[in-house]
Specification:
Elements lengths: L2 H8 L7 H4 L2 H14 L2 H6 L2 E4 L4 E4 L25 H5 L10 H5 L11 H8 L3 H23 L4
Antiparallel strand pairs: 1-2
Length: 153
Amino acid sequence: MSLKSWKEEFYPIRASSAEAIDTEEAALRHTELKWTGLLKENLEKHNLKWDYEAEVFANISDEDEYYEDDDYDVDCFTVGDINCALCQRHPGIFQCSACSLCQEAKNCCSGGKGSELNEFMEYGNASPMLKLIRKTLKNRIEVEKKEQCDVPE
């Protein structure tokens, strides 16, 4: 198992691909899959860990220097806007207000103390962000169903 096998399971397409950002639900599902992969047990399954200093994945047996790169085939993966389908769907510094995840929790992605993203960046805990993503997805689907039911024929 490796970063390559992790990407095949949890990040099979780039966040910026049309398929990942076509709809808000598609972007949420892409994001959910990635964050599921960031759970400790899934990192360990692929022989990966979160490196708190470099903030990248690193093969557990690899003690070499890590290089951050957005190239799809490198041996590290940085969590950030470059590989977030929601950020790619709503690009720009002030576009977070259009993101359904940010609408659900105002500072979830700010990285500030106590934010869902900070829980992962500081402690390697993906659960708060994954919980928020799933809540947002559930709420979004419920709203869309209600809107469909309210459409007059």
